[in-house]
Amino acid sequence: MGLFDEFKMRGVRIPNRIVVSPMSQYASKDGFANDWHFAHLSRFALGGAGLIFTEATAVEAQGRRTHGDLGLWQDDQIDELKRIVHFIKSEGAVAGIQLGHAGRKASERRPWDGETPVDDTDIAERDEAPWPTLGPSAIPYAGGWHIPEEMTRADIERVKYAFRDAAARAASAGFEVIEVYAAHGFLLHQFYSPIANVRLDDYGGSFENRVRLCLEVADSIRLVWPEERALIFRISATDWVDGGWEVEESIELARLLKARGVDAIDCSIGGIGGRGRPRRMTLEEGFQVPFAERIRHESDIATVAVGMIWSADFADRVVQEGRADLVAIARELLADPNWPLKAMGSLGIEREPFENWKPAFGWWLNKRERLVRKLGLR
Ligand SMILES: Cc1cc2nc3c(=O)[nH]c(=O)nc-3n(C[C@H](O)[C@H](O)[C@H](O)COP(=O)(O)O)c2cc1C
Question: With 248 labelled, which of 83, 123, 174, 318 sits at a CA distance of 20 to 30 A?
């Protein structure tokens, strides 16, 4: 099995193992998708990726990270997404949506405006007001951040149903895979990490209590999400700080999620914030792959590896060696949406140059290639 073998999850056939990792564009107004999202995501369908995820899509307005986040908390947000899904499918790829809630990391400025909390100065500068945030406990992400309101049981119920309702809307938009965003310090991660959760009720304290919301969100999505479509979770496999969430807990969480109808775990790390000093980590290509590998083997569930993967050869080996089932790529695909098609060339999958490119591109490129070769121009 290699990078260009099909992967099947329930009734979903993903033509290859390359996943477009969710990438927030901060380009929405009031949560609506627009032409930017269409162009951004369509490029990857033309470029040969197998499974294309939208960016983090908020299940309620309060759960947006920034004013520019995509959302699916109301029915009229479905239509534009439907158009995007239709195009992705018509080009032979699978469309997935990442559903999330930012919790205490909501009401944040876009990266290029500082990635700091929105305050009243943003009203004058961008006509964007701050809004109150929620979290498992009234602990801010970092000094100077909004202090979240500790969620009541009613808030927890509402958020759970917001995930369910957004999943139903995602189904009617035609998405075939949902990824629940339970990583990078956003709401569900805030619940399972002891760094952000000091609750004394059924949702805090023990491991069982801290993962409860994740499991209930999986259940509530599965109530409305068609049986033949896939559900995956993106988690932070470790907080990478002392006193935080550890990979052994991720292995157990993955087992519990699998039993609730979750088909794969997308294994990222970090993002919880707080005062703990991050442990040392060697940054290198595929540095997070060992987490996907451990969870795959020890939880017996399919995994997605992600993080600093940029060479076709490396990505192919991750799949060949059984370290992960799928490989998600973000920045390298931003740099080159045709990366998957080029990877087919460099891995020797093609019999003819450009044979897998859409003919509107590939026919011409192949013709030029033959001419250039014949004339010995390069
Ligand atoms: C522009 C941009 C936006 C991102 N937005 C999201 C997001 O909405 N949800 C998410 O889970 N990760 C998000 N990420 C993280 C990526 O999905 C990915 O995990 C990370 O960039 C590491 O992969 P890479 O080294 O291939 O870029 C974002 C990354 C980038 C570069």
Answer: 318
